[in-house]
Amino acid sequence: MAEPTCVIIGGGPAGMMLGLLLARAGVRVEVLEQHGDFLRDFRGDTVHPSTLRLLDELGLGRRFEELPHSRLDEVRWPVDANRSVVLADLRRLRQPHPYIAMVPQWDLLNLLADAARQEPSFTLRMDTEVTGLIQASGRVLGVRYRTSDGTTGELPAALTVACDGRRSIAHTDARLRPREFRVPMDAWWLRLPRLPQDSTALTPRAAPGQLAVVIPRAGYLQIAYLAEKGADQRLRAAGIESFRRDLAALMPELAGRLGALASMDDVKHLDVRLNRLQRWHTDGLLCIGDAAHAMSPVGGVGINLAVQDAVAAATLLAGPLRHGTPPPATLAAVRARRLLPTVAVQTLQRLLHRGLIDPTLAGRRTGPPAAVLALLRRFPRLAVVPAYLIGVGIRSEHAPWFARGYSLTSGEGHDRQNDDVKELMMKAKVGDRIIEEGTHVGDHRRVGVVTALRHDDGTPPYEVHWLDTGNDALVFPGGDARVEPGKPG
Protein backbone atom coordinates (compact mmCIF):
# COMPACT_ATOMS: atom_id res chain seq x y z
CA MET A 1 0.00 0.00 0.00
CA ALA A 2 1.29 3.48 -0.88
CA GLU A 3 2.20 5.78 1.97
CA PRO A 4 -0.52 8.30 2.79
CA THR A 5 -0.11 11.93 1.89
CA CYS A 6 -1.97 12.89 5.09
CA VAL A 7 -2.21 11.09 8.43
CA ILE A 8 -5.00 12.13 10.81
CA ILE A 9 -4.63 11.37 14.52
CA GLY A 10 -8.02 10.63 16.04
CA GLY A 11 -11.31 9.41 14.61
CA GLY A 12 -13.60 11.93 16.28
CA PRO A 13 -15.88 14.36 14.42
CA ALA A 14 -13.02 16.56 13.19
CA GLY A 15 -10.82 13.65 12.14
CA MET A 16 -13.53 11.70 10.34
CA MET A 17 -14.91 14.77 8.56
CA LEU A 18 -11.45 15.85 7.41
CA GLY A 19 -10.64 12.32 6.27
CA LEU A 20 -13.84 12.12 4.22
CA LEU A 21 -13.34 15.51 2.57
CA LEU A 22 -9.70 14.94 1.67
CA ALA A 23 -10.47 11.48 0.33
CA ARG A 24 -13.16 12.93 -1.93
CA ALA A 25 -10.47 15.24 -3.29
CA GLY A 26 -8.33 12.22 -4.14
CA VAL A 27 -5.79 12.77 -1.35
CA ARG A 28 -4.33 9.56 0.12
CA VAL A 29 -5.40 9.85 3.74
CA GLU A 30 -5.29 7.53 6.76
CA VAL A 31 -7.19 8.10 10.01
CA LEU A 32 -5.74 6.42 13.10
CA GLU A 33 -8.20 5.78 15.96
CA GLN A 34 -6.92 4.20 19.16
CA HIS A 35 -10.20 2.47 20.08
CA GLY A 36 -11.75 -0.54 18.40
CA ASP A 37 -15.08 1.23 17.86
CA PHE A 38 -16.72 4.62 18.36
CA LEU A 39 -18.85 3.54 21.34
CA ARG A 40 -18.13 6.04 24.11
CA ASP A 41 -20.90 7.34 26.37
CA PHE A 42 -21.49 11.01 27.18
CA ARG A 43 -19.51 12.32 24.26
CA GLY A 44 -20.95 15.39 22.60
CA ASP A 45 -24.08 14.32 20.75
CA THR A 46 -25.25 17.65 19.33
CA VAL A 47 -25.41 18.16 15.57
CA HIS A 48 -26.13 21.81 14.90
CA PRO A 49 -28.00 23.42 11.98
CA SER A 50 -24.79 24.38 10.19
CA THR A 51 -23.51 20.80 10.44
CA LEU A 52 -26.86 19.43 9.25
CA ARG A 53 -26.62 21.75 6.23
CA LEU A 54 -23.09 20.48 5.63
CA LEU A 55 -24.29 16.87 5.65
CA ASP A 56 -26.87 17.82 3.02
CA GLU A 57 -24.16 19.37 0.88
CA LEU A 58 -22.10 16.19 1.18
CA GLY A 59 -25.03 14.10 0.01
CA LEU A 60 -25.41 12.46 3.44
CA GLY A 61 -28.55 14.21 4.62
CA ARG A 62 -30.95 11.38 3.89
CA ARG A 63 -28.76 8.80 5.62
CA PHE A 64 -28.43 11.04 8.66
CA GLU A 65 -32.21 11.42 8.85
CA GLU A 66 -32.47 7.64 9.09
CA LEU A 67 -30.40 7.59 12.29
CA PRO A 68 -32.34 7.50 15.57
CA HIS A 69 -32.29 11.03 16.94
CA SER A 70 -34.29 13.66 18.77
CA ARG A 71 -34.57 17.38 18.05
CA LEU A 72 -34.09 20.48 20.18
CA ASP A 73 -35.49 23.73 18.85
CA GLU A 74 -35.54 25.98 21.93
CA VAL A 75 -33.84 26.68 25.24
CA ARG A 76 -36.20 27.66 28.07
CA TRP A 77 -35.34 29.14 31.47
CA PRO A 78 -37.99 28.37 34.13
CA VAL A 79 -39.07 31.52 35.96
CA ASP A 80 -41.39 29.70 38.37
CA ALA A 81 -43.49 26.53 38.45
CA ASN A 82 -45.79 27.80 35.70
CA ARG A 83 -43.75 30.19 33.56
CA SER A 84 -40.59 30.04 31.50
CA VAL A 85 -38.72 32.34 29.13
CA VAL A 86 -37.35 31.22 25.76
CA LEU A 87 -33.65 32.10 25.80
CA ALA A 88 -32.85 30.70 22.35
CA ASP A 89 -35.41 29.94 19.64
CA LEU A 90 -33.89 27.92 16.83
CA ARG A 91 -37.24 27.77 15.05
CA ARG A 92 -36.65 31.37 13.98
CA LEU A 93 -33.44 30.50 12.13
CA ARG A 94 -33.51 30.78 8.36
CA GLN A 95 -31.79 27.44 7.94
CA PRO A 96 -32.78 24.21 6.18
CA HIS A 97 -32.75 22.51 9.59
CA PRO A 98 -33.79 25.00 12.32
CA TYR A 99 -33.03 22.68 15.22
CA ILE A 100 -30.23 20.80 16.95
CA ALA A 101 -30.28 17.06 16.29
CA MET A 102 -29.35 14.91 19.27
CA VAL A 103 -27.79 11.74 17.93
CA PRO A 104 -25.33 9.30 19.54
CA GLN A 105 -21.92 10.42 18.38
CA TRP A 106 -20.94 6.88 17.40
CA ASP A 107 -23.79 6.84 14.87
CA LEU A 108 -22.54 10.07 13.29
CA LEU A 109 -18.96 8.80 13.19
CA ASN A 110 -20.00 5.50 11.64
CA LEU A 111 -21.96 7.44 9.00
CA LEU A 112 -18.88 9.50 8.10
CA ALA A 113 -16.65 6.43 8.15
CA ASP A 114 -18.97 4.49 5.83
CA ALA A 115 -19.04 7.40 3.39
CA ALA A 116 -15.25 7.78 3.50
CA ARG A 117 -14.68 4.06 2.89
CA GLN A 118 -16.26 4.49 -0.53
CA GLU A 119 -13.20 6.49 -1.55
CA PRO A 120 -10.24 4.46 -2.84
CA SER A 121 -7.74 6.86 -1.25
CA PHE A 122 -9.16 6.53 2.30
CA THR A 123 -8.02 4.17 5.06
CA LEU A 124 -9.32 3.95 8.64
CA ARG A 125 -7.15 2.09 11.15
CA MET A 126 -9.00 1.20 14.34
CA ASP A 127 -7.23 -0.07 17.49
CA THR A 128 -4.23 2.01 16.47
CA GLU A 129 -2.80 4.39 19.05
CA VAL A 130 -0.39 7.11 17.99
CA THR A 131 2.52 7.01 20.43
CA GLY A 132 4.70 9.75 19.01
CA LEU A 133 5.59 12.00 16.10
CA ILE A 134 8.37 11.29 13.63
CA GLN A 135 10.50 14.44 13.57
CA ALA A 136 13.70 15.52 11.87
CA SER A 137 15.29 18.94 11.43
CA GLY A 138 12.31 20.68 13.03
CA ARG A 139 9.75 19.05 10.74
CA VAL A 140 7.07 16.46 11.52
CA LEU A 141 7.37 13.60 9.03
CA GLY A 142 4.58 11.28 10.24
CA VAL A 143 3.65 9.24 13.31
CA ARG A 144 4.68 6.24 15.37
CA TYR A 145 1.89 3.91 16.38
CA ARG A 146 1.02 0.81 18.38
CA THR A 147 -1.89 -1.51 17.64
CA SER A 148 -4.00 -3.38 20.20
CA ASP A 149 -1.98 -6.58 19.66
CA GLY A 150 1.26 -4.79 20.51
CA THR A 151 2.51 -4.29 16.96
CA THR A 152 4.46 -1.07 16.54
CA GLY A 153 5.37 0.85 13.44
CA GLU A 154 5.92 4.16 11.71
CA LEU A 155 3.70 5.88 9.16
CA PRO A 156 5.40 8.66 7.18
CA ALA A 157 3.24 11.40 5.66
CA ALA A 158 3.58 14.78 4.01
CA LEU A 159 1.15 16.21 6.58
CA THR A 160 0.02 15.05 10.01
CA VAL A 161 -3.21 16.52 11.40
CA ALA A 162 -3.84 16.20 15.14
CA CYS A 163 -7.55 15.70 15.87
CA ASP A 164 -6.93 13.83 19.12
CA GLY A 165 -8.56 16.21 21.56
CA ARG A 166 -7.49 18.45 24.38
CA ARG A 167 -4.73 16.09 25.53
CA SER A 168 -3.25 15.91 22.06
CA ILE A 169 0.11 14.28 21.57
CA ALA A 170 1.01 17.38 19.56
CA HIS A 171 1.01 19.43 22.77
CA THR A 172 3.86 17.37 24.19
CA ASP A 173 5.81 16.03 21.21
CA ALA A 174 5.62 19.19 19.09
CA ARG A 175 5.71 21.52 22.10
CA LEU A 176 2.57 23.36 21.11
CA ARG A 177 1.38 24.61 24.49
CA PRO A 178 -2.18 25.89 24.91
CA ARG A 179 -3.07 29.01 26.84
CA GLU A 180 -5.40 27.97 29.65
CA PHE A 181 -8.38 30.10 30.72
CA ARG A 182 -9.94 29.84 34.15
CA VAL A 183 -13.17 27.86 34.39
CA PRO A 184 -15.28 27.86 37.58
CA MET A 185 -16.95 24.48 37.19
CA ASP A 186 -16.77 20.85 36.22
CA ALA A 187 -19.63 18.82 34.76
CA TRP A 188 -21.15 15.47 35.72
CA TRP A 189 -23.23 13.57 33.17
CA LEU A 190 -26.06 11.19 34.01
CA ARG A 191 -29.23 9.68 32.56
CA LEU A 192 -32.75 9.55 33.97
CA PRO A 193 -35.94 8.01 32.57
CA ARG A 194 -38.02 10.24 30.31
CA LEU A 195 -41.81 10.43 30.54
CA PRO A 196 -44.21 11.42 27.72
CA GLN A 197 -45.22 14.64 29.49
CA ASP A 198 -41.64 15.92 29.84
CA SER A 199 -40.73 19.14 28.08
CA THR A 200 -39.08 18.86 24.68
CA ALA A 201 -37.01 22.01 25.33
CA LEU A 202 -33.52 22.12 26.72
CA THR A 203 -34.09 23.45 30.23
CA PRO A 204 -31.45 24.82 32.62
CA ARG A 205 -32.10 24.70 36.37
CA ALA A 206 -30.29 26.77 39.00
CA ALA A 207 -30.09 27.01 42.78
CA PRO A 208 -27.46 28.56 45.05
CA GLY A 209 -24.31 26.50 44.64
CA GLN A 210 -25.43 24.27 41.77
CA LEU A 211 -26.67 24.23 38.19
CA ALA A 212 -28.06 21.59 35.88
CA VAL A 213 -29.18 21.36 32.27
CA VAL A 214 -31.93 18.90 31.31
CA ILE A 215 -31.57 17.66 27.73
CA PRO A 216 -34.45 15.59 26.33
CA ARG A 217 -33.19 12.62 24.33
CA ALA A 218 -34.93 9.77 22.54
CA GLY A 219 -36.15 7.60 25.43
CA TYR A 220 -34.30 9.30 28.30
CA LEU A 221 -33.22 12.59 29.84
CA GLN A 222 -29.56 13.51 29.72
CA ILE A 223 -28.54 15.70 32.64
CA ALA A 224 -25.47 17.89 32.88
CA TYR A 225 -24.90 18.75 36.54
CA LEU A 226 -22.49 21.62 37.25
CA ALA A 227 -20.67 22.27 40.51
CA GLU A 228 -17.46 24.03 41.52
CA LYS A 229 -14.29 22.88 39.81
CA GLY A 230 -12.46 20.13 41.65
CA ALA A 231 -15.58 18.86 43.45
CA ASP A 232 -15.51 15.34 42.03
CA GLN A 233 -13.69 13.78 44.97
CA ARG A 234 -16.04 15.51 47.44
CA LEU A 235 -19.16 14.38 45.59
CA ARG A 236 -18.00 10.78 45.31
CA ALA A 237 -16.94 10.65 48.95
CA ALA A 238 -20.40 11.90 49.99
CA GLY A 239 -21.98 9.05 48.02
CA ILE A 240 -24.98 8.50 45.80
CA GLU A 241 -27.62 9.28 48.45
CA SER A 242 -26.19 12.74 49.02
CA PHE A 243 -25.96 13.30 45.27
CA ARG A 244 -29.60 12.28 44.82
CA ARG A 245 -30.64 14.75 47.53
CA ASP A 246 -28.79 17.57 45.78
CA LEU A 247 -30.48 16.72 42.49
CA ALA A 248 -33.92 16.43 44.11
CA ALA A 249 -33.55 19.87 45.67
CA LEU A 250 -32.51 21.35 42.33
CA MET A 251 -35.06 19.49 40.18
CA PRO A 252 -37.93 18.34 42.44
CA GLU A 253 -40.03 17.24 39.47
CA LEU A 254 -37.43 14.53 38.78
CA ALA A 255 -37.05 13.35 42.38
CA GLY A 256 -39.08 10.20 41.78
CA ARG A 257 -36.73 9.04 39.03
CA LEU A 258 -33.42 9.41 40.86
CA GLY A 259 -33.51 5.78 41.92
CA ALA A 260 -32.24 5.06 38.40
CA LEU A 261 -28.84 6.18 39.70
CA ALA A 262 -27.62 3.02 41.44
CA SER A 263 -24.20 4.39 42.40
CA MET A 264 -21.76 7.16 41.59
CA ASP A 265 -20.49 4.90 38.80
CA ASP A 266 -23.59 6.06 36.90
CA VAL A 267 -22.31 9.65 37.11
CA LYS A 268 -19.52 10.52 34.67
CA HIS A 269 -17.17 13.38 35.49
CA LEU A 270 -15.96 15.86 32.86
CA ASP A 271 -12.92 17.93 33.79
CA VAL A 272 -13.92 21.14 32.01
CA ARG A 273 -11.11 22.98 30.29
CA LEU A 274 -11.03 26.09 28.14
CA ASN A 275 -7.85 26.75 26.22
CA ARG A 276 -6.40 27.72 22.88
CA LEU A 277 -3.11 27.18 21.09
CA GLN A 278 -1.27 30.33 20.11
CA ARG A 279 0.05 28.48 17.06
CA TRP A 280 -1.97 25.64 15.51
CA HIS A 281 0.85 24.26 13.37
CA THR A 282 4.47 23.49 12.99
CA ASP A 283 6.17 22.37 9.80
CA GLY A 284 4.39 19.18 8.73
CA LEU A 285 1.79 19.25 11.54
CA LEU A 286 -1.60 20.94 12.01
CA CYS A 287 -3.92 20.88 15.04
CA ILE A 288 -7.69 21.39 14.72
CA GLY A 289 -10.74 20.87 16.90
CA ASP A 290 -10.14 20.32 20.61
CA ALA A 291 -6.46 19.74 19.88
CA ALA A 292 -6.29 23.43 18.91
CA HIS A 293 -8.95 24.83 21.25
CA ALA A 294 -10.72 23.02 24.09
CA MET A 295 -14.19 24.45 24.61
CA SER A 296 -16.44 24.72 27.64
CA PRO A 297 -19.63 22.62 27.41
CA VAL A 298 -21.64 25.86 27.68
CA GLY A 299 -23.69 26.06 24.49
CA GLY A 300 -22.66 22.59 23.35
CA VAL A 301 -20.72 24.06 20.43
CA GLY A 302 -17.46 22.13 20.65
CA ILE A 303 -18.35 19.49 18.05
CA ASN A 304 -19.75 22.08 15.67
CA LEU A 305 -16.54 24.12 15.84
CA ALA A 306 -14.41 21.01 15.35
CA VAL A 307 -16.36 20.03 12.23
CA GLN A 308 -16.09 23.58 10.88
CA ASP A 309 -12.32 23.45 11.44
CA ALA A 310 -12.18 20.24 9.42
CA VAL A 311 -14.11 21.77 6.51
CA ALA A 312 -11.89 24.85 6.45
CA ALA A 313 -8.76 22.69 6.62
CA ALA A 314 -9.93 20.48 3.76
CA THR A 315 -10.86 23.48 1.61
CA LEU A 316 -7.45 25.07 2.12
CA LEU A 317 -5.28 21.94 2.07
CA ALA A 318 -6.77 19.61 -0.55
CA GLY A 319 -5.14 21.39 -3.48
CA PRO A 320 -1.66 21.67 -1.93
CA LEU A 321 -1.83 18.03 -0.74
CA ARG A 322 -2.66 16.80 -4.25
CA HIS A 323 0.21 18.91 -5.51
CA GLY A 324 2.77 17.96 -2.84
CA THR A 325 3.45 19.13 0.70
CA PRO A 326 1.56 22.13 2.11
CA PRO A 327 3.97 24.88 3.17
CA PRO A 328 3.74 26.30 6.71
CA ALA A 329 2.01 29.41 5.37
CA THR A 330 -0.88 27.28 4.12
CA LEU A 331 -1.16 25.55 7.50
CA ALA A 332 -1.19 28.96 9.16
CA ALA A 333 -4.07 29.96 6.87
CA VAL A 334 -6.30 27.38 8.58
CA ARG A 335 -5.83 29.12 11.92
CA ALA A 336 -6.36 32.51 10.28
CA ARG A 337 -9.63 31.27 8.83
CA ARG A 338 -10.92 29.73 12.07
CA LEU A 339 -9.49 32.05 14.73
CA LEU A 340 -12.35 34.59 14.77
CA PRO A 341 -15.14 32.06 15.45
CA THR A 342 -12.98 30.28 18.02
CA VAL A 343 -12.13 33.44 19.94
CA ALA A 344 -15.71 34.72 19.70
CA VAL A 345 -17.19 31.54 21.17
CA GLN A 346 -14.57 31.27 23.90
CA THR A 347 -15.07 34.92 24.83
CA LEU A 348 -18.82 34.39 25.10
CA GLN A 349 -18.28 31.27 27.19
CA ARG A 350 -15.94 33.14 29.53
CA LEU A 351 -18.52 35.91 29.92
CA LEU A 352 -21.18 33.33 30.83
CA HIS A 353 -18.77 31.71 33.26
CA ARG A 354 -18.16 35.03 35.01
CA GLY A 355 -21.65 36.48 34.76
CA LEU A 356 -23.84 33.43 35.43
CA ILE A 357 -22.09 30.20 36.39
CA ASP A 358 -19.50 31.59 38.81
CA PRO A 359 -21.98 33.71 40.84
CA THR A 360 -24.56 30.90 40.85
CA LEU A 361 -22.08 28.35 42.18
CA ALA A 362 -20.97 30.92 44.75
CA GLY A 363 -24.60 31.39 45.87
CA ARG A 364 -24.91 34.98 44.63
CA ARG A 365 -27.29 34.34 41.71
CA THR A 366 -29.85 31.78 40.59
CA GLY A 367 -30.32 32.68 36.95
CA PRO A 368 -29.75 35.24 34.21
CA PRO A 369 -30.21 38.91 35.12
CA ALA A 370 -33.87 39.84 35.54
CA ALA A 371 -33.50 42.59 32.92
CA VAL A 372 -32.42 40.02 30.31
CA LEU A 373 -35.39 37.77 31.05
CA ALA A 374 -37.77 40.75 30.94
CA LEU A 375 -36.34 41.87 27.59
CA LEU A 376 -36.80 38.41 26.07
CA ARG A 377 -40.36 38.19 27.40
CA ARG A 378 -41.20 41.57 25.85
CA PHE A 379 -39.36 40.96 22.56
CA PRO A 380 -39.37 37.19 21.95
CA ARG A 381 -37.87 37.60 18.48
CA LEU A 382 -34.58 38.50 20.15
CA ALA A 383 -34.24 34.81 21.06
CA VAL A 384 -33.03 34.23 17.50
CA VAL A 385 -29.71 35.94 18.35
CA PRO A 386 -28.44 33.33 20.84
CA ALA A 387 -30.03 30.67 18.63
CA TYR A 388 -27.88 31.82 15.72
CA LEU A 389 -24.71 31.95 17.81
CA ILE A 390 -25.35 28.42 19.10
CA GLY A 391 -26.79 26.80 16.00
CA VAL A 392 -24.94 28.44 13.12
CA GLY A 393 -22.12 30.50 14.52
CA ILE A 394 -19.73 33.01 13.05
CA ARG A 395 -18.22 32.13 9.68
CA SER A 396 -19.86 28.75 9.32
CA GLU A 397 -18.28 26.68 6.56
CA HIS A 398 -19.86 25.17 3.47
CA ALA A 399 -18.73 21.92 1.90
CA PRO A 400 -15.97 22.53 -0.65
CA TRP A 401 -17.01 21.96 -4.23
CA PHE A 402 -14.85 18.88 -4.67
CA ALA A 403 -16.69 17.03 -1.89
CA ARG A 404 -20.29 17.93 -2.70
CA GLY A 405 -22.34 14.83 -3.16
CA TYR A 406 -19.98 12.86 -5.39
CA SER A 407 -16.37 11.77 -5.63
CA LEU A 408 -13.86 13.17 -8.10
CA THR A 409 -11.80 9.98 -7.80
CA SER A 410 -14.39 7.23 -7.95
CA GLY A 411 -17.09 9.12 -9.83
CA GLU A 412 -19.65 7.34 -7.68
CA GLY A 413 -22.71 9.03 -6.24
CA HIS A 414 -23.13 9.30 -2.50
CA ASP A 415 -26.83 10.03 -2.23
CA ARG A 416 -30.01 10.86 -4.10
CA GLN A 417 -28.63 14.39 -4.63
CA ASN A 418 -25.78 13.10 -6.79
CA ASP A 419 -27.09 13.95 -10.26
CA ASP A 420 -28.52 17.31 -9.20
CA VAL A 421 -25.33 18.33 -7.43
CA LYS A 422 -23.20 17.35 -10.41
CA GLU A 423 -25.32 19.59 -12.63
CA LEU A 424 -24.92 22.47 -10.18
CA MET A 425 -21.17 22.03 -9.72
CA MET A 426 -18.96 24.99 -10.45
CA LYS A 427 -17.64 24.68 -14.00
CA ALA A 428 -15.02 26.69 -15.81
CA LYS A 429 -12.95 26.72 -18.97
CA VAL A 430 -9.46 27.93 -19.69
CA GLY A 431 -9.41 31.72 -19.63
CA ASP A 432 -12.28 32.11 -17.16
CA ARG A 433 -11.75 34.12 -14.02
CA ILE A 434 -12.08 32.66 -10.52
CA ILE A 435 -13.17 35.27 -7.98
CA GLU A 436 -12.86 34.35 -4.32
CA GLU A 437 -14.30 36.35 -1.45
CA GLY A 438 -12.58 35.39 1.79
CA THR A 439 -11.18 31.93 1.11
CA HIS A 440 -7.42 31.76 1.81
CA VAL A 441 -7.02 35.52 2.11
CA GLY A 442 -8.62 36.78 5.30
CA ASP A 443 -11.91 38.03 3.93
CA HIS A 444 -10.80 40.14 1.00
CA ARG A 445 -11.30 39.62 -2.71
CA ARG A 446 -8.83 38.06 -5.10
CA VAL A 447 -8.99 37.16 -8.77
CA GLY A 448 -7.26 34.46 -10.77
CA VAL A 449 -7.31 33.16 -14.35
CA VAL A 450 -7.87 29.48 -15.14
CA THR A 451 -4.84 28.28 -17.09
CA ALA A 452 -5.58 24.53 -17.26
CA LEU A 453 -8.31 22.01 -16.40
CA ARG A 454 -7.90 18.67 -14.65
CA HIS A 455 -11.34 17.39 -15.71
CA ASP A 456 -12.81 17.60 -19.20
CA ASP A 457 -16.25 18.55 -17.84
CA GLY A 458 -14.84 21.77 -16.35
CA THR A 459 -15.33 20.83 -12.70
CA PRO A 460 -12.63 21.61 -10.11
CA PRO A 461 -9.74 21.49 -9.50
CA TYR A 462 -8.23 24.13 -11.79
CA GLU A 463 -4.75 25.38 -12.48
CA VAL A 464 -5.08 29.08 -11.65
CA HIS A 465 -2.76 32.06 -12.05
CA TRP A 466 -3.50 34.56 -9.25
CA LEU A 467 -3.32 38.12 -10.52
CA ASP A 468 -2.59 39.72 -7.15
CA THR A 469 0.47 37.61 -6.30
CA GLY A 470 1.56 36.23 -9.67
CA ASN A 471 1.51 32.71 -8.19
CA ASP A 472 0.27 29.60 -9.95
CA ALA A 473 -1.67 27.02 -7.91
CA LEU A 474 -3.96 24.03 -8.13
CA VAL A 475 -7.25 25.35 -6.76
CA PHE A 476 -10.44 23.80 -5.41
CA PRO A 477 -12.69 26.88 -5.17
CA GLY A 478 -14.70 27.01 -1.95
CA GLY A 479 -18.33 27.94 -1.43
CA ASP A 480 -17.51 31.65 -1.45
CA ALA A 481 -16.06 31.61 -4.99
CA ARG A 482 -17.59 32.20 -8.41
CA VAL A 483 -16.63 31.89 -12.06
CA GLU A 484 -16.82 34.72 -14.58
CA PRO A 485 -16.43 33.94 -18.29
CA GLY A 486 -13.18 35.03 -19.87
CA LYS A 487 -13.20 37.61 -22.63
CA PRO A 488 -13.23 36.12 -26.14
CA GLY A 489 -9.86 36.11 -27.77
Tell the overall outline. Answer: globular
Helix content: 25-40%
Q: Distance between termini? A: 47 Å
Average predicted local confidence, pLDDT: 87
Write up this protein.
A hairpin with a 2-residue loop joins β16 and β17 (220-228). The chain has twelve helices and 26 strands. It starts with 5 loop residues before the first strand and ends in a 5-residue tail after the last strand. Helix content is 29%, strand content 27%. The longest helix is centred in the C-terminal third of the chain and has 34 residues, at 328-361. It has a six-stranded mixed beta sheet with strand order 8-2-1-12-21-20, covered by helices on one side. It has a five-stranded antiparallel beta sheet with strand order 15-16-17-14-18. The chain is globular. The chain is of the alpha+beta class and 489 residues long. Residues 426-483 form the DUF1918 domain. InterPro entries: DUF1918, FAD-bd, FAD/NAD-bd_sf, PheA/TfdB_FAD_monoxygenase. Pfam families: DUF1918 (PF08940), FAD_binding_3 (PF01494). GO terms for molecular function: FAD binding; oxidoreductase activity.
How are the secondary structure elements laid out?
Elements: E1 6-9, H1 13-24, E2 29-32, E3 46-47, H2 49-57, H3 61-65, E4 70-72, E5 74-78, E6 84-89, E7 100-102, H4 105-117, E8 122-125, E9 128-136, E10 139-147, E11 152-156, E12 159-162, H5 169-173, E13 178-181, E14 185-193, E15 203-207, E16 210-217, E17 220-228, H6 232-238, H7 240-250, E18 268-270, E19 274-277, E20 281-282, E21 285-287, H8 302-323, H9 328-361, H10 370-378, H11 384-391, H12 418-424, E22 433-437, E23 445-453, E24 462-466, E25 472-475, E26 481-484
Parallel strand pairs: 1-2, 1-12, 2-8, 12-21
Antiparallel strand pairs: 3-7, 4-7, 5-6, 9-10, 10-11, 13-19, 14-17, 14-18, 15-16, 16-17, 20-21, 22-23, 22-26, 23-24, 24-25
Helix pairs in contact: 1-4, 1-8, 8-9
